[in-house]
Fold this sequence. Notes:
By secondary structure, this protein is of the alpha/beta class. It has nine helices and five strands; from the N terminus they run ααααβαβαβαβαβα.
Amino acid sequence: xxxxxxxxxxxxxxxxxxxxxxxxxxANEAVAxxxxxxxxxMEGLAAGMAEMGRLYEEEECYVPELMVSSEALYxxxxxxxxxxxxxxxxxxxxxxxxGAVQGDIHDIGKNLVKMMLEVSGxxxxxxxxxxxxxxxxxxxxxxxxDLLCMSALMTTTIIAxxxxxxxxxxxxxxxxxxxxxxxxxxxxxDEWGADGYGENxxxxxxxxxxxxxA
Length: 214
Ligand code: B12
């Protein structure tokens, strides 16, 4: 049987190759050999997507390749994610509403954050992607949520978060607001008045649990 490093490498490679079958096979092997499913997702599948992001930026791959890579990532995730959820079993700490902001259809990172929040005992209402800013407000009220999490991956879409922050604060008193996505950082989060920022899904869950005071 292959060792952990080899399996993590296979997961990463399967995403880079956009090979769904290979991603499922490597995910099953990770399960069979007892690799921590969370590690397999973050250091295998997500690492492959991050590498594709780098290649895209260097113009060594294009949008169609990114799309097949994301399909492979989701195929592997379908095997591994239920196991992360099953191993979690944390006590309920609160409710969060999450979504990718208006104009933004990037949802891989958002979905990983959702998974880590759920594992940490936070109930998550997922609004999906390209979510109108007003819909976030309505959903938080509907769910009586404690936390609003917004994801944005483009310099053009992060602006809505900045613009709507005063409205969120006014209409959702007491609700903690977290933001994340590649163009964002702690500095912008502080400047715009967000309560929290997370560089990755693990960090997002840690910050969320802290904000909920759990
Ligand atoms: C994959 C990808 C796509 C896929 C998306 C598939 C999907 N279902 O999500 C597809 C091919 C569809 C796509 C399309 C486009 N894309 Co694109 N895409 C990417 C790419 C390569 C990777 C993003 C990704 O999935 N990363 C992997 C995940 C795991 O990381 P992540 O998203 O950063 O999330 C982590 C953290 O940021 C954090 N996090 C994320 N959300 C949140 C939320 C909270 C609350 C917290 C706390 C933390 C947190 O935790 C996550 C997990 O660890 C990036 C490049 C990059 N470097 O980001 C470009 C990129 C974002 N895309 C870009 C562009 C331009 C586009 C297109 C316009 C291209 C085109 N010409 O058609 C379109 C349309 C996009 C739209 N309207 O939204 C640009 C944006 C440029 C800009 N303006 O800033 C980028 C930066 C590439 C580039 N350098 O040009 N894209």
